[in-house]
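Researcher: Structure prediction, please.
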Amino acid sequence: MLILGLDTSCDDTAAAVVRDGCGIMSNVVSNQNELHEKYGGIVPELASRRHIEMILPVVTEAMNRAGTDFKDISAIAVSYGPGLIGSLLVGVCFSKSLAFVKDIPFVAVNHLEGHIFSIFLEATPAFPFLAVVVSGGHTSIYKVDGFGLYSELGKTRDDAAGEAYDKVAKLLGFGYPGGPIIEAIASTGDSEAISFPKALLKDSFDFSFSGLKTSVVNYVKRYPASRKEDIAASFQNTVIEIITKRTIEAAIATGSKRIVLSGGVSANSALRKNMKEKANEKGLEVYLPSLRLCTDNAAMIAAAGYHHFINGKISNYELNPKSYLPLGPAAD
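Model: Predicted structure follows.
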């Protein structure tokens, strides 16, 4: 069973063909980094316009790499939220049009669900497990009891971790995207040079990074001659400690023995290393997607879409994208 997946939730135009929910036949991603770099962040209108330009070439490339034809595609899976509404519109409208013309069923996939199911393209963690999605727009913890059975345990109350990375990188003059740049620069700095505050909310698994970002701003203003490498390393160390601590606490509280870490920020080598070390100390197993599956891609959408399709969750042409789309009972 072949599923064509599409994702245009933010600034990456992605298409993929996946067999039986786990075998990647192709996975094509066209990023827009050079388009948004001079602005220090994503400009929504520019992102949606670039999606319009790139979606047909990207889908065509994905089909060619997979060596397949539309007559062999069982269903089209598309990310319909959460994300930038203009970007989502491109993917959803294209998918509905393609499904209509080719007479192929299509299914709607929550982008966050896609991140969670990215691990099933390479491994098969047993249910239940704890899923941590850490990206530019989301920092959330879910208990996953099975396909479609998600309970949100915690989320960010303000900035997401990836968003904080981008804003701090812009503050320090490092450019965009901030995550990979800060990770590289932090490797030459002292992670204990500066003690930034850690917002660890009581009686909650929620996250908060806005205060940390503000602390970095105030520190730079107060000590303008400080080494940027040390600021980057200390900032990153603080983010990693917060994410790891909250995740381990949630796993212990829920009795979860397995942790799946996903999302763009999960590509950070220091976070991956720290999470595995701290989890192993508590007897917890950590599953990490390969780097190519951490950032936004369409293979993960196809993987989740496969389960929607085999469970009969087919969408209709009235489907509209949603910029805000919780994952779990609140989404119904």
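Model: Residues 228-254 form the longest helix (27 residues).
Researcher: Thanks, that helps.
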